[in-house]
Write a structure and sequence with these properties.
globular; 4-stranded parallel sheet; 464 residues; TIM Barrel; 17 strands; alpha/beta; binds zinc ion
């Protein structure tokens, strides 16, 4: 009898603990998502029939639906059993025009890294300002991490505005980026080795990350040895692979296959993150073959005149008499080789990030991420691996583990309500049923209205 009573007491205790409801105190407004299946992280735990409560920009509680008490006046969203999972990050996008933020949200992108900010300071129009306005809710768009504007040497593709001539000039630019509040610097293609090293040294002294190209004056190995944080576009790989020929794409095509795996292992050992941005090598040359056809892509309905003009003017920068069809055939072959490299990087466990490099020609904000994700599939990554790269690894790269890329108490409220399971089918990312970015909630109706407005503005800009 005594034993039985003890068992009952234990059972009672267990039951009462399990049912003790989580009470959310009154205070600042709360938005709660009831009856959702929480994906705490891709490839991780799934919590069915749960409620996620958000206050400000933070997830403050995650509990079973029947074990949470919300304060009076809380905004309640019925999830209808849908999956609520981390939003993804585009880790290479040049985001300056606030009006395109919604294009990224509508494609499940809740965080971006801008690897070359706009404006050297932090005043109006700078990327620092854009990031702050997003947090305040004045700009609709993803949460922004950014480096300062790219730093380059004489003859820069991007014009004299980004050029520094001296080693001291590079140091000065790094100091300006630090003072403005950027988290990183961006080192570009025309720097001398001395300038590049000075930039690395100055950035390290100020705790800034270093995002880089491999300058023409250096090898990939030189840059890996300096332990920069990231290299963009698999830059410099084709030279390291020993590919010979005229131009970047031809060198990729000519790269000996037996050098791919050893290079992938050297890159993995360096710990330097790679951001392949394969789409930016493919989409422009594909479009230049027939720009009228390219202009008919459905997502280009959101492209304003200024953006289209920039894209249309781009072929004029290429050598006169360029055969665009032949050029694209070479790029397609180079793309196959880059996929092969990406496959080797996966096998070597090299740290990777997913980015698009929008708005380079025909790399449209938000929409272009899906093709890039598809390239990772082609290179052998599973959906779950891809989603983990676009969430957990993105956060780890930025030293923000636990801050985003997860749905956990204390994390920033950056998540998506899905009609379907992105781990089964990545296409689900194209049609979020609602997006919470930087603590601001946009349901499907709101996203549709914002997209319609974006289309109206874009079309109006073209007829002026
Ligand atoms: Zn870029």
């Amino acid at each position: 009898m005594i034993i039985r009573r003890a068992v009952l007491a234990a059972l009672f205790l267990a039951a009462s603990c399990a049912s003790a409801p989580r009470v959310i105190e009154a205070g600042e407004p709360v938005t709660a998502f009831r009856n959702v299946t929480v994906v705490t992280e891709y490839g991780g735990e799934r919590l069915t029939h749960h409620t996620v409560a958000v206050r400000g920009d933070r997830i403050i509680a995650i509990a079973p639906d029947n074990a949470i008490v919300l304060p009076e006046g809380a905004t309640v969203v019925d999830g209808g059993g849908r999956i609520l999972a981390p939003g993804i990050a585009d880790m290479h996008v040049h985001y300056q025009d606030p009006s395109v933020g919604v294009l990224m949200l509508a494609n499940s992108i809740t965080t971006i890294r801008n690897p070359s900010g706009f404006g050297v300071g932090n005043g109006p129009g700078s990327t620092i300002d854009l990031a702050a306005r997003t947090v305040r809710g004045e700009v609709i768009g993803p949460y922004v991490y950014s480096s300062g504007q790219l730093i380059d040497g004489p003859g820069s593709f991007w014009g004299p505005g980004v050029v520094v001539d001296t080693v001291e000039g590079v140091r000065e630019r790094v100091r300006q980026d630090a003072e403005a509040g950027y988290i990183a610097i961006k080192l570009y293609a025309q720097l001398t080795p001395e300038q590049f090293r000075a930039g690395v040294e100055e950035a390290r002294a100020r705790n800034l990350q270093i995002y880089s190209h491999v300058p023409a004056s250096m090898t990939l190995e030189d840059v890996l040895a300096l332990r920069v944080d990231s290299i963009e576009h698999l830059d410099g790989f084709e030279r390291s692979l020993g590919g010979e020929g005229q131009g970047l794409q031809s060198r990729w095509v000519a790269a000996p296959a037996d050098r791919v795996a050893p290079l992938a292992r050297r890159v993995a050992e360096s710990g330097v993150w790679q951001v392949p941005t394969l789409i930016v090598n493919l989409a422009p040359s594909r479009a230049f073959v027939d720009m009228n056809a390219a202009d008919a892509a459905p997502e280009l309905r959101y492209a304003v005149k200024g953006l289209l003009d920039f894209w249309h003017s781009y072929p004029a920068r290429l050598p006169p008499g360029t055969d665009f069809a032949a050029r694209y055939r070479t790029v397609e072959q180079a793309h196959v080789r880059r996929i092969e490299m990406l496959r080797a990087l996966r096998e070597a466990h090299a740290p990777l990030l997913i980015g698009t490099d929008a708005p380079n020609p025909y790399v449209m904000y938000g929409f272009s991420i899906h093709e890039e994700l598809g390239f990772f599939r082609e290179a052998g990554f599973s959906n779950t691996e891809i989603l983990r790269i676009a969430t957990l690894d993105a956060a780890r790269f930025l030293n923000k583990t636990g801050e985003f890329g997860v749905v956990r108490e204390g994390a920033r409220a950056d998540f998506v309500l899905f009609d379907g399971d992105p781990e089964r089918d990545l296409a689900v990312l194209r049609t979020p049923q609602g997006v919470m970015a930087a603590g601001h909630w946009y349901d499907r109706a709101r996203l549709d209205a914002l997209l319609a407005e974006s289309e109206r503005v874009a079309q109006a800009s073209r007829t002026q």
